[in-house]
Amino acid sequence: FVKERTRKGKDSAMEELILLCEDSIEGILSGVYQAYELHRDHETIRLQTGEAENYRLFAEYRDVKTDEEKSRKVLRTVYRRFGEEAYTQLCQAMVSYDPQKADAVYHTIVAGISGQYRGKLMDHLSSRYVNKVFQLSRNTGIEIHHLLGFLRFRELRGGALLARYSPKNDITAMIMPHFADRLPNEDFAVYDEGRKYYAVHPKGKQWYLVRGELPFSEGEESYTQKEQQYQMLYRHFCQSIAIYERRNPGLQRNMLPLRFRKYMNNCRLWQNSIRQRLPYRNLWYFFRVLSFFP
Q1: Strands 197-201, 188-192: parallel, antiparallel or unpaired by DSSP?
Q2: Alpha helix ranges (H) inside 151-257
Q3: Could you give the strand order of the β-sheet that contains 59-63, starting from the edge strand earlier in sequence?
Q4: What is the crossing angle of helices 84-94 and 68-82, to 10°?
Q5: Count of Cβ atoms closer than 10 Å to residue 15 Cβ
Q6: Which residues contact 186 (CB under 8 A, 6 or more apart)?
């Protein structure tokens, strides 16, 4: 009886455990904290974001409750043990759209805390988990770099600025410090259409996140007269200087991917004017548009 009980205990200890976390930095780090609390072999634990779609045989599934205090403890440990560079890369990996990000981040932290590697943690790309985190961080960093230049704001009636976009990765909280620093005296919001939430920056105050859709649709947006005049000016400016026969769509796609153009006012206006090929191709009309401005 004792031998049979011991054998069953070993089998249950080796059973794969999958922790289901919320798809956020706080949710993933709460899962990391709970995995350490279990005092089990880390090779038998997996982290997964969202709901389980395909259940595995002989695997146990547990839901992880998001705890901000526990996530802050893990973040402090990561920053203190691994440094700022690894801290940033792990955070960028955790906002990736890849469904395997939670498990890669978890085992990368385990490898770093256990002292398995010497030197900088993220330099050990021979580890499949470290390599995965590095790839996810690089992909997220590239998208952040693109959107810091491609994101476009429109001025609504009342003076507030609004930018709509739909990024692959959940990067709204990572680009907001840049725009808050560049536009400290402006009321503006950045809306993620794919994830249905937005960041709000009141003039002269700290920005914050709001879950849910905007109270109005894109078709209901009302722009200021100045915004409409600038849109008209840009459309006819592109119409005046463009040489239709020398277009290079392939080069344009390389320099500015198509998925960004849906939310860029100047690209939509430019494409519409090229399609229509309006007859306003002279400087007289261009200066006539300029005359609308005071």
Answers
A1: antiparallel
A2: 172-182, 225-241, 249-255
A3: 45-49, 16-21, 59-63
A4: 140
A5: 12
A6: 161, 201, 203
Strand 197-201 versus strand 208-211 pairing type? antiparallel
**Mean pLDDT estimate for the chain:** 84
Q: In this structure, is the dihedral angle defined by the CA atoms of residues 110, 113, 116 and 118, taken in order, positive or negative?
A: positive
Helix (H/G/I), strand (E/B), else coil: 185:
coil
**What pTM does this model have?**
0.80
Angle between helices 84-94 and 128-150 in degrees, nearest 10: 80
129-152 per-position pLDDT tens digit: 999 999 999 999 999 999 998 898
Distance (Å, rounded) from C-alpha 208 to C-alpha 197?
11
Distances (CA, A) of 263 to 186, 242, 248: 20, 22, 21
Query: What tokens were used for 1?
Result: 């009886």
DSSP letter, residue 168: S
